Structures are given as C-alpha cells and as structure tokens.
C-alpha cells in the first residue's frame, strides 16, 4: 500500500540499545496522565496537519510487551484514525535507517516530518524543509552535550547543523521536516555507507547541495531525558 503525495508524520520508536538490557524502552512507559511518552511526544503538534501518521517499532518489543496493542489503545483514546504502526523485524543501526525503512515500507511520497519520541514541544509544522529549534537561554535546565546545534542567518535560512558542538544558541528540539521523501532517501543513500550517520548529517549534506532549510520555532519544550 502506497501513500499518496500527502504530509507524513513519522515517530521512530525502534531503539534497541544495549543499556535497556531486555527491558521495555522507557519511551513506551506511561506518564502520570496514562499516555505513553512516545505518543505524548506528538501531542503538541496539530495532528490534523498530517495525512499519514506512522509509529515505527520493533517486532521484539511488540511480542515482548504488546507495544502495538498499547499504541492502538492510545490512538483510539486520541481519536487518531490515521495513525498506524510499522513493525521492523530487525533493529536498525541508526535513526536515519529507521526513517528510510519506514519510508520504503509505506511507499511514502511528498513531505515528511520526523518527531523524536523522547521529548515534547509545540509548533506549527509546514510541508517544507526545516528543523525544530529552541534557544538554550529559554530553558532552566538542559544538557548541552547531547544536542545538535543549528546556525541561522539573518534571512532565516539554516546555514549549519552539527552534533554536540555549540555553534549557536539554537539547539535542535527533536523535529525535522523534509519537503520531499525522495530527497531524504537520495541523501541517505549517498551517506549510509559511512555507518553511524545522524539526521543532522543528512541535513548538512543537503545544505551543501544548496537545499534550503528553515528554522521551526518551538515552545513548551520538554526533554524527558529518556531513550
């Protein structure tokens, strides 16, 4: 089944880190309101913006913890009849690979917004290249060592994005928009041989190819400091 040229939201929740030691990843735990963290992560967005909403998980988590069932219950609670689950049989090496496999499995075309599952923010999302950003000085407590940073010029164009090096007061808040899924796939395919690539590497490569990315300003940012 292929998605038409609509706006796609992908939430990659297929992490299988050694530190979990076989336990359920904390992004699938419920908060005090009973909502799973990975689902609460998207509730600051206007979900009516998106034609397709995909949560990508691992089969082993579905089988061990019934994550697919838990997600469907949450979708019903929120009235998300357009939300679906993509189940991967094997872990991916990187978040970028998770996204690429999701796009391939669903046959996605058109714009794609990627929302990290371990944090929350409010923002208006448009179907164009962009990176969600938040200023460091707006937060009382944040660990700057685990962020990527975004430089923006006077014309509101992103000029640089880099992992774990403070090149700007703006850090990536965990949201990335690609105006065309095919552009993402082309950039990913050109870099995947390098191994451990981040989405920031894909965006930087696209910047070098003269693609324009805009900052997406967010509010209400929360980092749950979970993976």
Structure description:
This protein has 6 helices and 11 strands. A hairpin with a 5-residue loop joins strand 7 (148-152) and strand 8. It has helices spanning 37-40, 59-65, 67-78, 95-106, 181-191, 199-208, and strands at residues 8-12, 52-58, 83-88, 112-115, 119-122, 130-135, 148-152, 158-163, 170-178, 214-217, 219-223. The radius of gyration is 17 Å and the shape is globular. Helices cover 25% and strands 27% of the residues. Strands 1, 2, 3, 4, 6, 7, 8, 9 and 10 form a 9-stranded mixed β-sheet that branches. The chain has a two-stranded antiparallel sheet with strand order 5-11. The protein starts with 7 loop residues before the first strand and ends with a strand. The model has no long low-confidence stretch (mean pLDDT 91). With 227 residues, the chain is α/β, with parallel strands linked by helices. 39% of the residues are buried.
List the helices and strands and how they pair.
Elements: E1 8-12, H1 37-40, E2 52-58, H2 59-65, H3 67-78, E3 83-88, H4 95-106, E4 112-115, E5 119-122, E6 130-135, E7 148-152, E8 158-163, E9 170-178, H5 181-191, H6 199-208, E10 214-217, E11 219-223
Parallel strand pairs: 1-2, 1-4, 2-3, 6-10
Antiparallel strand pairs: 4-9, 5-11, 6-9, 7-8, 7-9
Helix pairs in contact: 4-5, 5-6
Which structural class should the secondary elements be placed in?
A: alpha/beta
Unreliably modeled segments: none
Q: Helicity, in percent?
A: 10-25%
Cα(first) to Cα(last) distance is 30 Å
Q: Radius of gyration over alpha carbons? A: 17 Å
- Oligomer designation: single chain
Q: Whole-number average pLDDT? A: 91
Mass-distribution shape: globular
Compute the number of strand runs.
Answer: 11
The description of the largest β-sheet is: 9 strands, mixed
- Tell me what portion of residues adopts beta-strand conformation: 25-35%
> How many H/I helical runs?
6
SSE arrangement, N to C: EHEHHEHEEEEEEHHEE
